[in-house]
UniProtKB/TrEMBL annotation:
The chain crosses the membrane at residues 36-55. Gene3D superfamilies: Tetratricopeptide repeat domain (1.25.40.10). Keywords: Membrane, Transmembrane, Transmembrane helix. This is Ancillary SecYEG translocon subunit/Cell division coordinator CpoB TPR domain-containing protein. It comes from Thermotomaculum hydrothermale.
Length: 238
């Protein structure tokens, strides 16, 4: 039986928090513009944020203060000048360096653990955009070993892409295998992970194993957007 999927609009309705829904919009928009960072990362962030809202209370002053501080930092990260507006930053490098500075400040403030965790993850994203892969990988590995689910899924998928792009294919597959053992709450994007693993297997020349995963994706997740991608991948392998 296929797992239930929600559209972007349905997820936003479930979330109820306008501020966080706005962040989701920015994440999705940023993901479309930064395709080098693989769409799966954006999917994972989207899913993790939705779950965070479903299980987290926004009633305390500390939490409200924390979310506001985090929102201001992400505004810099996702900043895009409006039409006819003079850009705030000379270039993307300056923008990401400024965002990195703001996320690092959050670590030192009296904020919630949830915000500090997400801020650390965004530090890694800043480093990736600044092409400092080593520093990004160090942060991601630390978070992967310490972050709770479902946020760990977001971290893991980002780390998978870093490992895969660095040629560490076996390590990338090991992370994916661990993710796919988790239940739907901890890991809401198994369909993407099946597709991702199949592509890595193709890189390794393991075409039959890749086909098996693509068939599993098509069978288990017939309504997934990634099922369409899986069919195309199968044609390319054949």
């Amino acid at each position: 039986m296929a797992e239930k999927k929600y559209s972007h609009k349905q997820m936003k309705k479930l979330m109820k928090e306008d501020e966080v829904a706005s962040v989701v919009d920015k994440v999705l928009s940023w993901g479309k513009e930064n395709k080098t960072l693989v769409y799966g990362i954006v999917i994972a962030i989207f899913a993790a944020i939705a779950i965070y809202v479903a299980v987290t209370s926004y009633s305390t002053n500390k939490t409200e203060k924390s979310e506001l501080a985090f929102s201001k930092a992400t505004e810099i990260f996702y900043y895009k000048p409006k039409k006819n507006e003079a850009p705030k930053y000379k270039n993307k490098e300056e923008q990401y360096n400024k965002a990195l500075e703001e996320f690092k400040k959050l670590e030192k403030e009296n904020l919630t653990k949830s915000v500090k965790l997400r801020a650390k993850f965004y530090e890694a994203l800043c480093y990736l955009n600044l092409n400092n892969i080593g520093e990004a990988e160090k942060i991601l590995e630390n978070l992967y070993n310490s972050a709770p689910y479902p946020f760990k899924t977001t971290v893991a998928l980002t780390l998978v892409n870093v490992k895969s792009n660095s040629g560490e294919l076996d390590k990338a597959i090991a992370i994916l295998d661990n993710l796919m053992k988790q239940d739907t709450f901890k890991n809401p994007v198994k369909d993407y992970e099946l597709l991702k693993k199949s592509k890595i297997l193709v890189k390794q020349g393991k075409l039959e194993e890749a086909k098996e995963l693509l068939n599993q994706l098509i069978l288990d997740f017939p309504d997934s957007a990634f099922a369409t991608d899986a069919k195309k991948e199968k044609e390319n392998i054949s």
